[in-house]
Automatic annotation (TrEMBL):
Family listed: Belongs to the metallo-dependent hydrolases superfamily. NagA family.
Organism of origin: Pelomonas aquatica
Protein name in the entry: N-acetylglucosamine-6-phosphate deacetylase
Gene3D superfamilies per the UniProt record, alphabetical: Metal-dependent hydrolases, Urease, subunit C, domain 1
Molecular functions per Gene Ontology: N-acetylglucosamine-6-phosphate deacetylase activity
Organism phylogeny: Bacteria, Pseudomonadati, Pseudomonadota, Betaproteobacteria, Burkholderiales
Length: 376
């Protein structure tokens, strides 16, 4: 059975007015004529975008990835209701036994998508292989990485992205073997210098974790890890909640890093009212749109990807096609997924339908329509 969706279809090249067809979980056809992207959705026309892809998700719907059990099912359902059609479940720095337990719970969900849920593509292992001097909101359980340990963790659930501090002893030598194993190494939670960052990129590091946050900043005599990213980085993730990074700094990154894509770094507080929530072993408070530790440190976010898109367009002034690339296509390309993050024949039927104000109206994950109104 085919489903026909009509409206203004957003592609990386621009916007076309027409229709697309979904069949057997994939996009069967896309037809239309070019229109002015700035007028998408006028006259009540629907705006069709590729489903959002979020490579940094700690939680949502009141649940945290590190809880194990059925937490990831709740998280995947809640983010699907906000237009995220595929995600990486992201861990916290913790004792290895706790990370193992979380990955064991994630393994089955990575193999089979649940009903009304985003596709869990795999794991972003954010810690414990980070610098204890740049924990940010991570608990104090940082340890050096070994290839044997990462390989063992990868057997429980597929690790697609791994954050490390390259300046820590032995880490630089691990980057090449990890890359060869299909794991994208990201530089993050790092006290390293500009030279450390360049060395990591030369060794095969693929990108940077939540650019600007929890890394050495840019100074004109000490460019730091941020300077390495801006000068040489091809890919980086960034949190566009307008709290983690000033809009001016986001614009700098957009001009410097061609593959800059957006993530939420969302916690259990995403999609939930103000209050106290878990983030690994920490308790965090959601208030005034942000999530913080008791000392005021930003601790992940309450951001959802539909709001990320609105921030890019309505605050930063990006065109709709460019903003769509930043929340979808570029992340898919980074992960090597040619059949996600784009509205094209043969791609998975991951579609977000919005109105002219970029408010969510419908979501489809692999052709399944998601209930965007009822609670998860």
């Amino acid at each position: 059975m085919k489903l026909r969706l009509e409206g203004d279809i957003v592609t990386p090249q621009g916007v076309i007015a027409g229709h697309l067809e979904l069949a057997h979980g994939r996009i069967a056809a896309v037809e239309g004529v070019p229109v002015d992207a700035s007028r998408a959705g006028e006259g009540g026309r629907a705006v069709l975008l590729p489903g959002f892809i979020d490579t940094h998700v700690h939680g949502g719907g009141g649940r945290d990835t590190m809880e194990g059990g059925d937490a990831i099912a709740t998280i995947a359902r809640r983010h699907a209701r906000h237009g995220t059609t595929a995600l990486l479940a992201t861990t916290m720095t913790a004792p290895i036994a706790q990370i193992e337990a979380a990955l064991k719970a994630l393994g089955p969900v990575c193999r089979e998508r649940g009903a009304q849920s985003a596709r869990v593509l795999g794991v972003h292992l954010e810690g414990p292989y980070i610098n204890p001097d740049r924990l940010g909101a991570q608990p104090a359980h940082a340890v050096p990485a070994t290839l044997v340990e990462v390989q063992r963790l990868n057997e429980f659930a597929p690790i697609k992205v791994l954050t490390i501090a390259p300046e820590m002893g032995g880490h630089l030598a691990l980057i090449g073997p990890l890359r060869d194993a299909g794991i994208r190494v990201q530089i993050g939670h790092s006290a390293g210098s500009h030279e450390d960052g360049v060395a990591a990129l030369n060794a095969g590091a693929a990108g940077f974790t939540h650019l600007f946050n929890a890394m050495t900043g840019l100074h004109h005599r000490e460019p730091g890890m941020v300077g390495a990213a801006l000068a040489y980085g091809q890919h980086a993730e960034l949190i566009p909640d307008l709290l983690h990074v000033h809009p001016g700094a986001i614009r700098v990154a957009l001009r410097c890093i061609p593959g800059l894509f957006c993530v939420t770094d969302s916690t259990a507080a995403a999609g939930m009212p103000d209050g106290e929530y878990a983030l690994g072993e920490h308790r965090v408070q959601k208030c005034l749109g942000g999530v913080r530790l008791a000392d005021g440190t930003l601790a992940g976010s309450a951001l959802t990807m539909d709001q990320a898109l609105r921030n890019l367009v309505q605050v930063l002034g990006l065109s709709l096609p460019d903003a769509s690339r930043r929340v979808s296509t570029l992340a898919a390309d980074y992960l090597g997924l040619a059949d996600r993050g784009r509205l094209a024949p043969g791609a998975w039927g991951d579609v977000v339908v919005m109105d002219a104000g970029l408010q969510l109206r419908r979501v489809f994950v692999e052709g399944e329509e998601i209930d965007v109104v009822a609670d998860a």
